[in-house]
Amino acid sequence: MTQTNRYNLDFEKPIAELERKIEELKRLTEKEGLDFTEEIKRLQSRSRELQEKIFSHLTPWQRVQLARHPNRPKSLTLAKLIFDDLLLLHGDRLYSDDQAIVGGLAKIEGEGIVFIGHQKGESVKENLFRNFGMAHPEGYRKASRLMSLGEKFKKPIISFIDTPGAYPGIEAEERGQAEAIAANLEKMSQLKVPILAIVIGEGGSGGALGIGVGDKILMLENAIYSVISPEGCAAILWKDQEKVEEAAEALHLTSQDLLKLGIIDEVIPEPRGGAHRNVEKTAANIKQAIIKHLRELRKLSLDELIERRWQKYRKIGSFKRE
């Protein structure tokens, strides 16, 4: 499903204008019987050249904008394209069913898996319903319940990360937001099944980590993963929102940066122009990566799996003894 943009970022607008002209010429060709073949080819060639020029040299801030693009495919959209027999499960059995985190049972290539993901809305109304993908403690406890289910039935766990962060409201704190995330970190570090965590959009702070500990961490090409948003960083360091571009660069939050730093294991390519331009191709690329990594992880014994997971996180970062 190649998506027609309902919304264009500033740096996408020249491409969108060319695409609009191409569509107009195609409509005239159909309606009036006029031959604009050569003009259409010329504009299509120009559009490809412009896409190559723009999207081959994106700044970190532009990638932040793409990661937040309103048309970017959400967890459930991708899950329905990637997995078979998706059955969503609900509730944390303690408080409520947090709509910012979705999950359940599914299959990929005939193998059963447990799927967990942050879910943003496709519209303003749904975003309010989903709390913009910002989970409450019950969301992380629902995820924990699904993880336990996966371990019990020996099914790999696949998580899709796409959140600005955990919900910071007072009611979330009252219900134990920090404890819920910390408990998930502990649980995921010890789960006796393979875990793949894939950042498909925004990977924001502890909200992302709450379902983000894995044997392999993958990221879509234009996704971001950071301890804080560029806006939050600019506010703290410079007290100036004009510094967001500088903050985005300083945070090293792009998939390319994080691969170099050893934080993630693979960058999954997106269609030229971003995941929102061809959702089916994006889903196919993610599916291919999932299948490849699950095959590799299946070869490990449980002891090897957990030891490698432990060592993976021990190696992140560096420190110096005086």
TrEMBL record:
<keyword id="KW-0444">Lipid biosynthesis</keyword>
<protein>
    <recommendedName>
        <fullName>Acetyl-coenzyme A carboxylase carboxyl transferase subunit alpha</fullName>
        <ecNumber>2.1.3.15</ecNumber>
    </recommendedName>
</protein>
<keyword id="KW-0067">ATP-binding</keyword>
<dbReference type="Pfam" id="PF03255">
    <property type="entry name" value="ACCA"/>
</dbReference>
<comment type="similarity">
    <text>Belongs to the AccA family.</text>
</comment>
<keyword id="KW-0436">Ligase</keyword>
<comment type="function">
    <text>Component of the acetyl coenzyme A carboxylase (ACC) complex. First, biotin carboxylase catalyzes the carboxylation of biotin on its carrier protein (BCCP) and then the CO(2) group is transferred by the carboxyltransferase to acetyl-CoA to form malonyl-CoA.</text>
</comment>
<feature type="domain" description="CoA carboxyltransferase C-terminal">
    <location>
        <begin position="42"/>
        <end position="296"/>
    </location>
</feature>
<comment type="pathway">
    <text>Lipid metabolism; malonyl-CoA biosynthesis; malonyl-CoA from acetyl-CoA: step 1/1.</text>
</comment>
<dbReference type="GO" id="GO:0003989">
    <property type="term" value="F:acetyl-CoA carboxylase activity"/>
</dbReference>
<dbReference type="GO" id="GO:0005524">
    <property type="term" value="F:ATP binding"/>
</dbReference>
<dbReference type="GO" id="GO:0009317">
    <property type="term" value="C:acetyl-CoA carboxylase complex"/>
</dbReference>
<dbReference type="InterPro" id="IPR029045">
    <property type="entry name" value="ClpP/crotonase-like_dom_sf"/>
</dbReference>
<keyword id="KW-0276">Fatty acid metabolism</keyword>
<dbReference type="GO" id="GO:2001295">
    <property type="term" value="P:malonyl-CoA biosynthetic process"/>
</dbReference>
<keyword id="KW-0963">Cytoplasm</keyword>
<feature type="coiled-coil region">
    <location>
        <begin position="8"/>
        <end position="35"/>
    </location>
</feature>
<dbReference type="InterPro" id="IPR011763">
    <property type="entry name" value="COA_CT_C"/>
</dbReference>
<keyword id="KW-0275">Fatty acid biosynthesis</keyword>
<keyword id="KW-0443">Lipid metabolism</keyword>
<dbReference type="InterPro" id="IPR001095">
    <property type="entry name" value="Acetyl_CoA_COase_a_su"/>
</dbReference>
<dbReference type="GO" id="GO:0016743">
    <property type="term" value="F:carboxyl- or carbamoyltransferase activity"/>
</dbReference>
<dbReference type="GO" id="GO:0006633">
    <property type="term" value="P:fatty acid biosynthetic process"/>
</dbReference>
<keyword id="KW-0808">Transferase</keyword>
<keyword id="KW-0175">Coiled coil</keyword>
<keyword id="KW-0547">Nucleotide-binding</keyword>
<comment type="subunit">
    <text>Acetyl-CoA carboxylase is a heterohexamer composed of biotin carboxyl carrier protein (AccB), biotin carboxylase (AccC) and two subunits each of ACCase subunit alpha (AccA) and ACCase subunit beta (AccD).</text>
</comment>
